[in-house]
Structures
1.
Amino acid sequence: MEGHNFEQLKAHILPLSQSNNFNIARTEWDLVGVEISDEIDNCPCGQVIKEHCYIRNRLTGSGTFVGNVCINRFMQIDTGNLFDGLKRIASDDTANANHDLIEYAFRKGYLFGENEYNFLKQTVLKRKLSLAQIKWKQKINRRIINKTIVRRRSELL
């Protein structure tokens, strides 16, 4: 993969991990957040990125970020279509979030409980919504884009 330096990524991840073996160390990490930035940054592998995947090591408590390709290919944490969904609603706040984004938003606490979760799931493929449904969807999408938490962590567990 051009621009993706696996050894450079490994050198970044291993000191933040408990294990010195990358194949074991990568299993210590969890995805804790994603972001599409307007500014260009560099993944620890050296690749230029705008899609940041924030990860936390559940054994050491260390945190860092990697790019979308590295999270999937090297860390083997699947972000699925999460970034596609984020891009879609960021460019059009009336657009439908995809299933991966809905699940992510629910886990992160960006949705007011089951009602909003079920609403998004039921309308994910619908093209014609009432004005009230469109307004509700815009309100939810803006919350997701702005990473606004509306439920306490204890409610999420």
Note: Helices lie at 6-13, 22-25, 68-73, 82-91, 99-108, 113-123, 131-145, 153-156.
2.
Amino acid sequence: MKILVIGATGPTGREIVKQALERGHQVTAAVRHPEGAGFSAEVRLVKADVMDAASLAAAAEGQDAVLCSLGSKIDRKPTTLFSQGTRNLIAAMEQSGVRRLLCITGIGAGDSKGHGGFLYDRIIQPLLLDEIYKDKTRQEQIIRQSGLDWTIFRPGALNNGPLKGVYREFTDLTGVTIGSISRADTAHSLLAHLEDPTSYGKTITYCY
């Protein structure tokens, strides 16, 4: 498949690009600074910014699917990066006729709030990530209201561990506390569901 990766230069985005190439996909990476991206020649680079709708429309042209791994630095100030960036991305996909969207949000967005364990739920999220996850909740709402074939992915606490290929996936969080997962297995989960129509319209939360 021809896939566009948003957030390709982040640590999870790089794993997505790497594993997508290994699976034989044609990868386009949307990056703000192509000259410093550091990808192999196999990766097609397109200069784009999620807050610039026109640049996203050009990046989405001719793609079969979009994998969004949009991230930001920890910041306690209100943000619209995730919600407005995703709104722009969806508009670009609709303009280009791309229907498949796989998007990473995280534990603390929507109804996953309160499922990250005591330290995360009581200290880390409210003190450091509250505004980010308020916007990720808005991001999820925008995705659900789109007419796309979407899947939302909520990984547990991310680490740089190795690819295991074995993890637990949940669509119902009743009584569930979500632990950690590597970025490599996060990429693995997205790509495993890339061509899986049974995952359309689902929110998948996963950890070891």
Note: The chain has one domain: 2-207.
3.
Amino acid sequence: MRQVPQYLIIGNGKMAKHFCHYLTLLGLPYYQWARKTHSVDALTALLAASSHIILLIRDDSIADFASTLGNSTRKTLIHFSGQLSSPMVYGAHPLMTFTENLYDEATYRSMPFVLEEGSPAFQDLLPGIPNNTYQIPAPLKAYYHMLCVISANFTCILWQKFFHDLQEKLHLPLEAGLPYLTQAFRNIAQNPQGAVTGPLVRKDEKTIQANLHALKNDAFYPIYLAFKGLYEHS
């Protein structure tokens, strides 16, 4: 029988709050420590009592924090960074976007974890976590993380523009745009390569020029042009 892990979560930011909530939903025990709210003595005691240490702190602080532990612990060290590859800390990136709102258990269970090729088995890194996993070569982690950023975060910026101007310039309620948002993402999920619609697909240059004219003096004018160029050369 596999021993129940005792997790120690380092950090108290958004990712730490989500993962602590997930552990609670799964009924897995954990401690939590953060530099701003706990003492170094408290960390020493928690390290001794824990089996798996998860560093949910800034990417540029992970290696330094791990090095401060030195040989004081032989516990399993894990980080959730999508782009960092470190010889001192194993990476396990949850392929999910996280907001200030916590999710239900089904949502957390649905997210896969992406590991580096050659990593220990997922159930050794994060025992008790039932999620699916995939592996990628360590040299491609930066490219993988770039894909995450442009797909989720850049898309979010476009939809922020849509909903802001819908309400502020056209005086329509947010609810008016939700069916459009829902169907757009449903189309992407069902057929990513066939989800683009509208004047770019039809090669309707007159409508495209009308769109660009409407964006005159708007920061999104060059973005429209850039996507037009990308689509035409894809």
Note: Residues 141-168 form the longest helix (28 residues).
4.
Amino acid sequence: MDINIIFRIAAVGIITAIVNQILKKADKDEIATITTLAGLVIVLLMVVDMISQLFDTLRTMFGLY
């Protein structure tokens, strides 16, 4: 596992938090909620990709098809 994925997840979280705060200050609460959900989906896709790679590695390691 590479440390870069942790930095990517942190960067998505920080950017999402900043955009969320800016939109809430501008009284755009609905759009702020949507951006928060979009950030969550991006991070979940990253994690799902990592889990997929883990299962592929396990499958090749144990010779499963």
Note: Residues 4-62 form one domain.
